[in-house]
TrEMBL record:
Name of the protein in its database record: Anthocyanin 5-aromatic acyltransferase
Entry GO MF terms: acyltransferase activity, transferring groups other than amino-acyl groups
Flavoprotein keyword on record: no
Annotated InterPro entries: CAT-like_dom_sf, Plant_metabolite_acyltrans
Keyword terms of this UniProt record: Acyltransferase, Transferase
Amino acid sequence: MTSGITTVTVLEHCRVSPPLDHSVTEKLLHLTFFDIFWLNWPSVARVFFYDFPCSKSEFMQTIVPHLKKSLALTLKHYFPFCGNLITPTCLSNNTTPAIRYLNGDSISLIIAEFSGNTSHGFKHLSGDQDRDVDDLLALIPQLPPGYTNTTCEDDSTMCSPVLSVQVTLFPDQGFSIGFRNSHVIADGRSMSNFIRTWACINAKQLMGVDEYDNTYTIDLPFYDRSVIKDPKGIASIFLRECLQMASENSKAFPHVAQSKDLVQATFKMNRVQIQGLKNLVTAQYPYVSTFVVACAYVWTCMAKARMVLGLKMNDENEVENFIFMMDTRERLDPPIPLNYFGNAALNCRCSLKSIQLVGEKEGFLNAVEEIRRALDEKINNEEGVLKGFETIFDVIKASKGRRKFGVAGSPKFDYYSTDFGWGKPSKYEVVSEKFGLVGSRDSDGSLEIGLCFSKDEMDVFTTIFTQGLMS
């Protein structure tokens, strides 16, 4: 397969700023402990595909100008995306981590054209079958490099961009919009709101509506950081841990490598199949969510695939960790607005031995039970969902060396409603995450599961996943 690096030609590289507001020279959005938690996490990559055949001239003369104008108007309300993440570089620096926006700041926007083999073009890359991860990553920009601002030997700060966007034309087939963002600035809900706001403004713009501020179908961001209470000083604890890890060149979380030999594929799970999984545990759990059974099923399929491949299965008592995030906006005391901008998700961790996951039916039941336990531990305790969160880095360090993976995304974030005025996306994907989860395009209660493995692992996993849903 042709390397993704050679399949895209950059047509234009520009910067997009919100309209200038001369009454404001600087805005600071301080980080909470929810944000600081992600300081050592790699950036997040996602891409939308739009099946809208157009020529290069129409793309450059009509689609791109509208997208630039609507993006600038959207950034008026989402100004932090134009700013820089400001963090201290050492423990002796007293700089408070924040997103700093200066009047005139902008984001990087790349306009590109797919120039590879048409057999590996729009239909292929937006399909469900195995695709080379590097080919998908060619549709997603890198974040521009940051820089260190040094005033003295022990007083330096790192300034890092937090968002970049790339729009790629597939001539006479369609186009894609790729995003790369720092997880520090926004969780899935905040990113979803930003992208859908941009889409809404663009769609209204195409209809000739000029009063953009009165046309939103979703709430604009809520920025008041005072709603996040921190009586235990969790922010200081997390910052110290993250800076220590950075000094040791250590990541809090392993991330799937962005390299050749990795492929990405999409698996579908319809309502009948989801209900079938729920029926397997009805006796023990009369109600179990779609999210829980989907995650439990993928977790067990992964363990079985490793067993078939003989990967690190010499010790059947080896502990495996599964990690998922829980949105706390409605669960904090007091609750915070759903349109709160930033991060507000908790790290939930599940642990089982390998042998507990590979049983024909008991493996799935064990996984469901463990995921439910992790949820109940956060939800049903008298001290609230933040109980013990200040010690999460101790838990992470204690699990070093163990097999672990997490799920990115949630069926709650309706990415398939992201209509820029040319129809809803034909495909949405989080790229290079080992396990991504999103509601289906058909909005019928089905799921789309994105997975990223080596080719050998993907082949075995596909067989196990498909056969399990048929039994």
